[in-house]
Structures are given as structure tokens and as C-alpha cells.
Amino acid sequence: MTLSVRLRHNLPGFILDAAFEAPPGLTVLFGRSGSGKTTVINAVAGLLRPQAGRIVAGGRVLFDSTQGICLPPRQRRLGYIFQEGRLFPHLTVRQNLAYGRWFAPRDAAREDMGRVVEMLGIGHLLTRRPAQLSGGEKARVAIGRALLAAPQLILADEPLAALDEPRKAEILPYFERLRDAVNVPILYVSHSAAEVARLATTVVVLEEGRVTHQGAAAELLSDPRISPTGVREVGAVLEARIVTHHTDGLTELIAGTAAFFIPRIDRAPGTSVRIRIAAHDVMLARDRPTGLSALNIVEGRVEQLRSGTGPGTIVSLDTPAGRILARVTRRSAEALGLAEGVRCHAIVKSVAIAPQDVGAADSLPS
């Protein structure tokens, strides 16, 4: 099942003119605040009627300006996860979860409530009301309510933006499970590179109302000319597998043929994961360094150097682990004699790879 979107709508300051395809899995609408992300998702939800365009989910037309079709939200068969959760305060968790079923067609394939409750770990919360829940617990209940509406499409508008870092870390694995367990498109709005790296099957980059790029997270986050969050958020996304957990609190991974050591993560050996390594956390050396505290040292070949108007340079390395990026000063790049084809070593401190930068690998075929 896929989602096809083509929209045109006048907004203050610019015209939204966007078109993209969202395949099964989790598609992130990625861009700066004010780029049109929420307008797009509200148009898909039926909360905003665009001036022109066409929206089709799984072959079902939700909106077509030329044919005069504009289904109301309740008929669009979607689950919407809002930033604030928007649970009914007078209902218990169980009643909030059941509410979504009111809008599901009688003949629709329904999720089993017991399975959803177990997946989200909310069985002990069923008799509570929203005022008795933490922010992370509210977010999990909101995900469950969306799932139990038997949706053909799931929308999430910056669902983690209102949460602090510990709560974000708590909720991210549930969105990974949602991505891998549900066979409907998920359209997810974010301006966080870390969320995109962990969750996205597909990334759609929006800038001033236009789709500038669409593709895989690893490709788009590694190019400062593409990434809407700028050079500070540029980094590599590597596919890795957990080898073992060591008694000193480190987890050993293998990415390609290169070993990495990171702070312990609570996943079983053999599990496939994505790791994000920010370019500003990588140092470079022409010769393999000795006497360093850093445990992760990978040799590679310089693919490309990208310099902007400032003092920095992004160095792209082809390594046995995959593409790794380093952000260094132009002065350092010149002092090291870096150029395309030159071999050097990437150095990454173990503690630079934070738990929120490690996520479950996408289980969908690429």
C-alpha cells in the first residue's frame, strides 16, 4: 500500500507546491520550521482543504480538486498521532484506546487490542486517566489509539517534540516497532536528524513548500547541501550488527567488516541496528594513531571534500564500515594533505555515539 500526494496551496510568504510518493514503511517529511510539513500532513488528514491537488492512499482517492472529491477526516481511514497526544481526559486509557474503533468500518481488518497493549507495554495503565500518565505514557497510548482505528494510513506530526530527551528515548523504539509491524504507510513530520536517522524508510525534504529531495536517510543526512538542518547535523548512518556485550559496559558492533564499541545498548547479540555518527564527532589522522583513549579507529579513502563559506570542511571517507563523514577545519584538511583518493583514519570516541543514535534496522526490503 502506498500514499501518493500532489498539492498546491497558497501560504503566507510562499506557495506550497509539493509532490511525492510514500511507500510502505515510515516516510519522514523533513525540513525546517515553516517549510510546509504540517500543512502537508493536515491536507492528507483532511484538516485543511488545499486549493489544488490529488491525494491517493492505497488506490483510494481522498482528495481530487479536479473531480471535486474531498473526503471528511472521519472517512479517510487514518490514525493521527498529534504532538500533544490529545487523549480524552475524562476517559480511561482503555476507553481512549477503544475510541478509535468507532471510526473503523465493520468489515475492516482490526488490530487485536491485547496485541497492541502488549507491544506498547501499557497493560498496567488501562484503568488510569490521562492526568495520571507521564508524557511518554501518553504518547504510547496515542500510538495505540491510532493503531486500533484500523487505519489505511498513519500520520504523526512531530510526536516527540514536546518530550524531554529521556522520554524521547523511551518512545523511539515504539515507532520502530510500528514501522516494522504495520503494513500501511506512516507519514511522520520531523526536523530532528536523529529521529530521521533512526526511523526513516524514506525521507522527503521540504524547503519553502517544495520537495527538494527524496531518498534514503543515509544518503540525505550525509550531504550538507541537502540536509535542511545544516552542517551541524550532518553525519553518517551505518547498518551494523550487535556482536556481544562486554562486562565493562560496552557493546561491540560490526559494521561491514569494521568493529565499533559503544555504550551498552539493551538489544540481543545478532540484532541488526542503525548507528548515526555525527560528522563533528569524528577526528582524522593520516597514520593510524597510537596512545589514544578512542576505541573506534577505521581506515578509509577520501571520496570528497566539501567546503562552504566558513572555516569548515566536510570530508567523506569510503571505509569498510560504509561512508563516514568528518567535519574539520580547512586548515586541518590542508595540514593533513587531504584530497580525493588519500588514505586516512577516522577516529570516533565510544561515548560520542549516544543511545538515541542507535536504532533498530529497518526490516523492510530496500
UniProtKB/TrEMBL annotation:
Record domain ABC transporter: where: 5-233
Domain spans labelled Mop: 291-357
InterPro entries: AAA+_ATPase, ABC_transporter-like_ATP-bd, ABC_transporter-like_CS, Mo/tungstate-bd_C_term_dom, ModC_ABC_ATP-bd, Molybdenum_import_ModC, Mop_domain, P-loop_NTPase
Nucleotide-binding recorded as keyword: yes
Gene Ontology CC terms, in alphabetical order: membrane
Cross-referenced NCBIfam families: modC_ABC
PANTHER family recorded: ABC TRANSPORTER I FAMILY MEMBER 10
Protein name as annotated: Molybdenum ABC transporter ATP-binding protein
Gene coding for it: modC
